[in-house]
Amino acid sequence: MKFPSTYKLSEIATILGCEFVGEPDFPVTGMNEIHVVTPGDIVFVDHPKYYDKALASAATTVLINKKVDCPEGKALLISDDPFRDFNVLTKKFKPFTAFAKAEQTSYKVGKNSIIQPNTFISKDVVIGDNCIIHSNVSINNDCIIGDNVIIHSGTVIGADAFYYKKRESGYDKLLSNGRVVIEDNVEIGALCSIDRGVTGDTTIGYGSKLDNQVQIGHDTVLGKHVLIASQVGIAGCVVIEDEVIIWGQVGITSGITIGKKAVISGKAGVSKSLEPNKSYFGIPADDFRSKYKEIAAIRQIPELKKEIEELKSKANRDLKSSQI
Predict the structure, then answer these.
(1) Which residues of 62-81 are buried (b: 16+ CB within 10 A; e: fewer)?
(2) Which position among 35, 134, 218, 225 bears the catalytic label?
(3) Same domain assignment for residues 63 and 200
(4) Are 276 and 176 members of one domain?
């Protein structure tokens, strides 16, 4: 997310009520998560495990909970709770605002697009040409819908990210201010949920098709012509490259990449990045050749166990014979 104008480091520190390291007039132009930061952005980090990654990222201001050596050309904001203060900045620069009236409109709809009754379209949404948005669809703030898109009933575009920090009092939510961007010629089935990015975009690429009841997590990016069958659940920050096919009830963990033209069979559990141009199945998912070898080996276990028992019995008989 970019701020409406450039702020000084000292101004951001005043908003947060925290110390800073760097020149007071050091420029700050926005805030983002680490996977989408650009120069001028603030990134937050609150665990020593990720300090080096944050300090070496493209972000030029690091919101951190320990005073450390500041890399050249960067600045620090020293906070006792960077997670909390990242939310403070979200509320300051991108607060949630509700419609004053149900009939209030601040969205744009392109030529020949059809919006069925009981559809909710929030502020600053853009819908392209020749789209069909069926009844009871919700499209939340700032989402972008391309041309020739079909969205079926009950789908929610732009729900908040599932992103929490464990506290003694319970779970503290990281506020979302990103978007969902749906490119041209996409079709989305009924009762799908596509979460918006925390600070960036969740993207459904050109020509992709989603079946009913598909969940797409925050900041996930689908490439072109991706095909996803029913009841697939994809976590946040996943990259799915062009022409991937994912069959029903597959679960995919966060922060991984599915290579181009990979095919994932139904009910697979994907816990690591997958190479392109291969077919996968199982839990954890692996390519067909490796998985079938694994299954063949498992099927040999009863026979191997039987052979071991026979060898033990023979060894005992031989021992008794030698003692007579």
Answers:
(1) bbbbeebebeeebbbbbbeb
(2) 218
(3) no
(4) yes
